[in-house]
Write a structure and sequence with these properties.
Blueprint lengths: L7 H4 L1 H10 L5 E2 H8 L3 H13 L3 E7 L8 E7 L1 H17 L5
Antiparallel strand pairs: 1-3, 2-3
């Protein structure tokens, strides 16, 4: 269990939602994440870059068996550090809200 720790990187509303969606899955593809969050490619990419630079997210590209063209699918996963940061941030928010750990 990670300790309560407010994290400025995770705290931005869209990044908090990204981490929340990725927290309990191995990975999600970029398009599904974009559509779930109802944001543009550019907006999502900007926030993913921040998370990746912080070491909280790992992007991985692979060929798609469902497409007839050569485009690749980008898969996104939280790193161990990203999961710890997200969990700690959620605990800190709960403590701030008076809901305990």
């Amino acid at each position: 269990m990670s300790e309560a720790q407010f994290d400025e990187i995770v705290h931005a509303p869209l990044r908090l939602r990204i981490c929340g969606l990725l927290r309990h899955v191995d990975s999600l593809d970029f398009a599904l994440l974009r559509d779930s969050l109802e944001v543009s490619d550019a907006t999502l990419s900007k926030h993913l870059k921040v998370l990746t630079t912080a070491g909280y997210l790992t992007p991985r590209k692979s060929a798609s068996t469902e497409r007839g063209d050569a485009r690749r699918v980008m898969w996104l996963s939280l790193t161990k550090e990203g999961r710890i940061a997200f969990d700690g941030h959620v605990r800190a928010l709960r403590e701030i809200a008076g809901n305990g750990p």
